[in-house]
Amino acid sequence: MTPAPQESREVRVGVGVVVLRDGRVLLGQRTGSHGAGSWAFPGGHLEYGESPEACARREVREETGLEVGDLHRGPFVSDVFDREGRHYVTLIMLARAPRGEPELREPSKCLRWAWYPWSALPTPLFAPVASLVDTGFHPPDLV
Predict the structure, then answer these.
(1) In Å, what is the CA distance from 46 to each residue of 6, 53, 72, 140?
(2) CA-to-CA distance for 137 and 82, rounded, in angstroms?
(3) Which of 33, 54, 92, 117 yields a CA-CA distance of 20 to 30 A from 45?
(4) What is the mean pLDDT of residues 57-71?
(5) Is residue 109 classed exposed, middle or buried when 0-12, 13-18 and 19+ CB atoms within 10 A define those classes?
């Protein structure tokens, strides 16, 4: 395999938001970028000067239209996407979305949103979600 260009060898920071409601978590089926077809939390790139909390609120609102309540910092995961020449450290944030249903606001990036029990997540999982599951993590109110 040919190494990716040097400029793409930087490590990027992402934020993944575990949105909780009624014992379930929100996942979207990705399309149009790395991880297409896999299931992921709402989230995206941390922008310069942005806090993880602000990023989490922004990404959930942009992608789903949901407004989240209090945010709590969770663990982080580190994933290398060899084929794409990308390396992400993903900061996990925990949040509740007490009302409303997710809307498909970015159809070029996500096919659909659905709620799943932590014990029955769909497959395949996007690498950061799979890495989080592999650590044995369980959202606090789902243990």
Answers:
(1) 21, 10, 16, 24
(2) 25
(3) 117
(4) 97
(5) middle
Domains and CATH numbers, the chain: 11-137 (3.90.79.10)
The DSSP 8-state label assigned to residue 136 in this structure reads T
Which residues lie across from 16 on neighbouring strands? 43, 92
What pTM, to 2 d.p., does this model score?
A: 0.91
Secondary structure letter of residue 3 according to DSSP: P
Residue type, 110: C
Residue type, 52: P
State the Cα–Cα distance between residues 65 and 135, nearest whole angstrom.
30
> Rounded to whole angstroms, how far apart are CA atoms 90 and 34?
15
Tokens of 101: 């249903």
**CA angle, 128 then 61 then 77, to 5°:** 15
pLDDT at 142: 59
What is the number of helices (H) and of strands (E) in the chain?
Answer: 2, 7
pLDDT digits 0-9 by tens, 76-107: 999 999 888 899 999 999 999 999 999 999 99
